[in-house]
Amino acid sequence: MNPGALSLTAGKGWCVRRMLTERTAASLIYDNAFSRDQVGRIGVELEWLVVDQGFPQQRVPIADIRSCLGFADEGPLPQGGLISYEPGGQLELSSAPADTLAGCLDAAASDLALIRDLLGRRDLTLVGRGLDDRPAVLVNDLPRYRTLEQNYNRFGPSGKIIMCNAAAIQINVEAGDASPGWRGWRRRWWLANTLGPILMAMFANSPVSTGGMAHSARQIHRFQADPYRTAPLSLLGDPRENWMNYVLDAPLLDGSGLGSTMREWLRGGGSAGVSPEELDLHVRSMVPPVRPRGYLELRMIDAQRDDNWVVPLIVVSRLLDDALASAEAMRVVESLPQPLRPEDWVTAAREAMRDARLAEAAGRCMSIAIDALGRCDVPLWARRLVLDFADTYTFRSRCPADDLLVEEAA
Fold this sequence. Notes:
There is one protein chain. The chain has a single domain, classed as 2-Layer Sandwich (Creatine Kinase, Chain A, domain 2). With 410 residues, the chain is of the alpha+beta class. Helices cover 46% and strands 10% of the residues. Helix 4 packs antiparallel against helix 5 (158-165), helix 12 (310-321) crosses helix 13 and helix 12 crosses helix 16. Strands 1, 2, 3, 4, 5, 6 and 7 form a seven-stranded antiparallel β-sheet that branches. The longest helix has 20 residues, at 101-120. A hairpin with a 5-residue loop joins strand 2 and strand 3 (91-94). It is built from 17 helices and seven strands.
């Protein structure tokens, strides 16, 4: 669980080494929710399932993956990317923040090609799929992950499945500035959240056909893992206050305070107090579909097959970071029910492109993103992937999960 491609040291106050009061903690959360005050930079985090072609049902030990990667596992890759490992052994590539979409695409593709080459020499493959069908096993048992597992077990089996079997694409964009237009953080926050179910439906790639259909079962499991940490935030009221209360009212992960909320702990539930570092760890355990961390993390997109990871990256970039496309995307989401309800996210995860309104909105958003490609410098190979994806899936009211369902039925 890498801190994030745009994760810089948060704003003022996080490094002060003193115990926090409820007031100072609330102020830190509030002030740092949308603190970057710019637009344009972008980063991507790509999670992959690692499969041994000779023994596809066995988990590959992280030590074996690291042995294959050698120097690449020890620090920044040639294009600045970093490798980390999820609890189930999923490999995550986090790109360095890029000033342009083209720069992000080229850097991530280059670092990914190196990883694939090194793993391929030992018959290890990166599989782009939102949910692993192997039993959930914790192979990266860092203390932090064991604590997460303990917490998630309180709510049922979904948490461990998410930890060990899920793979996603996280796209990080700047939160925006204080202006009232398309660059403003309030508008970008609202647009990112209202686009969320559309993006979830468009790129659903973790189907389950038993026990109730779900095209993005990864998302269903995520919402069930811990509702205090995974539920979408309300779009009513001040986004900073909503995020502040979301964080403060979530139970602690630390075993000594399990069951107590951060707010209760700050009010005297813990005799040792809360340090800024402990508050930061608590904030990082919050994983709503869109998370404000100074920048915006879009966390609702399933991992994609082969090189189709570039498609959601381009779509998100154009819909949020191109002025004309952003205005057109606003018109699309304004045609959907408002305010966005939590059940709309579940509908998107279950039905995906089979929901007529979501499919129509997805098609319009894809067309907007494609038109916006003419206004930016994107490599030809990436443009072709977007057009192929749109023709194969979006414009046919389909998503990648539909292919997997056909394969499973064959």
